[in-house]
From TrEMBL:
Keywords: Signal. This is ABC transporter substrate-binding protein. It is found in: Periplasm. Transmembrane segments: none annotated. Gene3D superfamilies: Periplasmic binding protein-like II (3.40.190.10). Belongs to the bacterial solute-binding protein SsuA/TauA family.
Amino acid sequence: MKKFKFFTVISCVFLIFLSACNSNEQSSIKIAEVTRSLFYAPQYVAIEKGFFGDEGLDVELTTTWGGDKTMTALLSDGADVALVGSETSIYVYAQDSRDYAINFAQLTQTDGTFLVSKEPQPDFKWEDLKGSTFLGQRKGGMPQMVGEFVLKNHNIDPHADLNLLQNVDFANIPGAFVSGDADYVQLFEPTASTFEKEGSGHIVASFGEESGHVPYTVFMTKQSFIDKNEEEVMKFTKAIYKAQQWVQEHSAEEIAKVIQPYFEDTELDMLAASIDRYKDQGSFATDPILDEEEWNNLKDIMGEAGELPAGDLSYDDLVNTKFAEDVIED
């Protein structure tokens, strides 16, 4: 009897030991980001500051260079989570996809592009654009749709009042502006600030300030992944929220030092200046919640651009705020 009790105790201790070991196991999450951009600074902070690791997540980040490629990676299980414009979830849903993408954590809440002119314009007015050659972004993407939305709000018809160029790939737009005849271009940071420093262009306006809050870049995953991995999605959202709070509480210079490994070709002071510009206009979301007002603003922008698919594109169907709300409460 004593021997039996002894082995029972040993077995219990062994099981407790195994349980402790298992609790330290890391879950692997593959992230596909639509492009490499300091606009996504909180994501890189979450990686570099170990916030994902603190939650038991081992993340693998891949840049997929384009919304279509990013969604293909997500839908084909090449990625578990996609960081991309929330409009892509609407496009997928409209195609009657059975296992569509769910927006669960917002990263940026404004447009991230700036209007850059080739010549200095200290007294710039939006009407100055009329009759100019404008190098725009890819048709159907968030930068282009927000751009058109802002121009129309200033009584500019982008297709009638401008010589609008949309035949250049995203990655080649900066070079095409420098070498071409365009008077204006729509650029992200740090390219916009770099051009200004070099004298290649001059920032005259912000599309983010003009367009208001919108779910510009969001973490999304398939409903089937959520069903099978609720705990991992919760941990992922918690890590992002930690990073968002860290970005809010620290200076642009401190943030730049943390994320510099992702932008080795950009000088630290230029990174800091670009981050400061985004912080000033409130581009980084302060929490992961995508609210319904932002969603409706997105649909208005897509509708104005003629890109909103027909049918019921319900906020309740395509947005899940449960994880974000729970991590904030905790």
